[in-house]
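Researcher: Here's a chain I'd like modeled. Treat it as a single chain, no partners, no ligands.
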Amino acid sequence: MRHLILINTKVYPQSIAQQGLKLAQSISQVKSKKYEIALAPSLLTTKEICQKTALPIYAQHGDGELGPYTGSIPLQELKQIGVKGIILNHSEKILYFSEIKNTLILAKKLKLETIVCASTLYQIHRLAQLHPDYLAYEPKKLIGGKVSVTKAKPKLILKALELLKKRTSHTKLLCGAGVHSREDLGQALLLGAEGVLLSHAVVKAKNPGEFLRKMLI
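Model: Modeled as a single isolated chain. Structure tokens:
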């Protein structure tokens, strides 16, 4: 199984509307036998990017059941437009535990892969019992910075893995927060993670595809 490299484009100026499509097309040119390269584009570009690239696409967020829920992003519709999976509980989109639980139940029924973010070891411990496909460990203070969690808090990655093994045999760990170099990626895998979440390092690069290609060598 290949390690997952998921690029969360958020909604930077470089990742919305037509700029978002250009970014996705640049990233789609990067090929790897070792890594599965996936994208979480801005939600308003998700359908077009699903249609115009061969990248595995994850939604930056998703909601539960259909019904009278103005502004919701239904999982059923995400599935219909070709999304592979969803990100839940990012530090910029925090959810209640009950919301995560109910959304995961529906996502599993729809066969959508699930990535749940956790900013503390306590959250890792608690969320692991829900058995998402991935838990993404992202200490909040390091998100968007230039220091990777793999450098600043490597022991926490090991502790997170220990907690996961005690709670579930299904869920894999991703590293996020400040990951921006080949060394950060290598360290994350060496510590036992199954992949990484990337964002501004790729999105804001002058040539995102080339930056990613060099990172994965």
